[in-house]
From TrEMBL:
Main EC class the enzyme belongs to: transferase
Annotated catalysed reactions: thymidine + ATP = dTMP + ADP + H(+)
EC number: 2.7.1.21
Species this protein is from: Geodermatophilus maliterrae
Species classification: Bacteria, Bacillati, Actinomycetota, Actinomycetes, Geodermatophilales
Domain of life of the native organism: Bacteria
Matches recorded under Pfam families: TK
Protein name: Thymidine kinase
Length: 245
């Protein structure tokens, strides 16, 4: 007995509106780097370039720091996006669009570090079984310098992996590759993996507060040397803060 065919409807194949050849292979592409290196900017540029060629796509995000369902870039651009969470079945999400007669030729996935490994595998299945191009953008490492699980899976299975080339500078002038979490002015090395916050050090009153503690939480990109030393450089709080925990 043969297994039931679970492949998606033919509508999943890029339709005539897309100028890309219908059967050209799709790809899972992953762009990564530290905070503030331009991931969301590039995500919006890719979306723009795809859509102006007549392709139809979905923008996905998870916990954008704007707190809205959108992809927002510090350059000033922002576009609405579908908010997903770790429980979202990305296959079902795309298939529900097909079921409504809407084409999905590509996905732009921001904050991809927050995906579960299973969701990354769903993206790979959309590429391989349904010819959906996937462009994922995410952090390389967390504040402890460890790969996020979603990032790890993307590095394992993506067709193409690119470290974003825009250099974010540490306060010392060296390229900054690592993200420090700063709580009430001091760098920390323990805590929840996911705490949505910005790189802006001085939030307006009532904004930028950690969800549980009420503390001021932000991130700062550092070079490896200063991440190891836990030195945040000269700040309003004083010279070189040392890690507390
Ligand atoms: N006023 C500005 N003028 C030019 N570039 C800016 C400005 N503000 C931010 N940027 C650029 O935007 C980048 C951050 O882009 P963004 O897409 O928000 O980063 P990410 O998503 O990686 O956190 C900065 O590294 C800088 O290059
Ligand atoms: C390092 C680190 C970051 N985050 C959060 C902080 C921000 O909300 C996003 C990254 O946003 P960006 O578009 O790259 O600026 O991730 C986190 O939850 N945990 C971390 O360790």
């Amino acid at each position: 007995m043969t297994a039931p065919d679970r492949s998606p409807a033919p509508a999943s194949i890029p339709a005539a509106g897309g100028r890309r050849a219908a059967l050209a292979p799709a790809h899972l592409r992953f762009f990564h780097g530290p905070m503030d290196c331009g991931k969301s900017t590039l995500a919006l540029q890719v979306d723009h370039n795809q859509s102006r060629q007549g392709r139809s796509g979905l923008r996905l995000t998870q916990g954008d720091r704007s707190a809205g369902p959108q992809i927002s870039s510090r350059v000033g651009l922002s576009r609405t996006a579908v908010e997903v969470d770790t429980g979202t079945d990305l296959l079902l999400l795309v298939r529900s669009h097909w079921a409504e007669g809407r084409r999905v030729d590509y996905l732009v996935v921001d904050e991809a570090q927050f995906l579960t490994p299973a969701q990354v595998d769903q993206l790979a299945e959309l590429v391989d079984a349904s010819h959906v191009d996937v462009y994922a953008f995410g952090l390389t490492t967390d504040f402890r310098t460890r790969l996020f699980p979603g990032t790890q899976r993307l590095l394992e299975v993506a067709d193409d992996v690119q470290r974003i080339q825009v250099e974010v500078l540490c306060w010392c002038g060296a390229p900054g590759l690592l993200n420090a979490r700063v709580v009430d002015g001091a760098m920390v090395r323990s805590g929840a993996t996911v705490v949505v916050a910005d790189t802006a050090p001085t939030p307006a009153p009532g904004e930028g507060e950690g969800p549980d503690t009420g503390a001021d939480v932000h991130y700062q990109v550092l070079c490896r040397h200063h991440h190891v030393l836990g030195q945040l450089g000269p700040t309003a709080a004083g010279p070189g803060q040392l890690a507390l925990s």
